[in-house]
Amino acid sequence: MSPIQHHLTLLDGGMGQELRRRSESPATPLWSAQVMLDEPHLVTAVHRDFIAAGAHIITTNNYTVTPQRLARDSDPALFEALHAAALGAAHQARDESGQAVRIAGCLPPLVASYHAEVVPDDATCRRDYRRLVEVQAEGVDLFICETMTLTREALAATQAAVDHNLPVWVAFSVDDADGRRLRSGESLGEAARAVVAAGASAVLINCSVPEAVTTAMDALEDLGVPFGGYANAFTSAADLAPGGTVDGLEARQDLDPAGYAEHACGWVARGASIVGGCCEVSPAHIAELAERLRT
Known about the structure:
Structural class: alpha/beta
Order of helices and strands: EHHHEHHEHEHEEEHEHEHEH
Shape: globular
Number of strands: 10
Radius of gyration: 17 Å
Strand content: 5-15%
Distance between the termini: 10 Å
């Protein structure tokens, strides 16, 4: 099997939706972190399957483990234990795989995906992103600030991570109908330039429909840093309310592994060097994409 071109980096796919398929428990607002408490072996298995599919980077399973989400949906005292479990699962999967994959620490939206209007004030963002960075920094190779919908939230996450001297990648979520704008309505190009100026070493688009990711590529190609994307396969993720569960979201029927890979290879053709998948993108999707990138 020929290797993927050396300048391309393949990310993993969507942990949360893959856990939904494998777990016998109902979805909760804390969903993927709840599985860390109840069925941690599933998290390790999903990581391992993404590595076997060809991923060069796996991202820690701590997307819902923020102070705000724990206060709303669970117990704030679980913050350290859940992060330790997430890091442990990623390291165990890497060790068991025997592959030299990198582990990315996750810096998610503090309150909710897709909703710029609920982002906390700047002082709170700075404080809590520093806390998220500090609890992960010793166990990761880089950070991905992901599903960022608002420039100032992305900047707070970027600055907290840059202070620890690890590579920082920023992934914005864009308007599904207009990939040139964040879900806040702000210009993607301006937001991207702001995080690069703050120290981000790559800029990505994530958790948006593939068509919007394609549109967004134009705003990233002149940044002077690597860029790329990892889309979701929902019909409309923006319908998810803060504190809601993914049970209310519907997967698209046209984004099977071959259909998704077609979009992702289109991003590579436009200059992207980092691609992968978000919600509803499985190890089978990543395996198909890996095979396409080899050829």
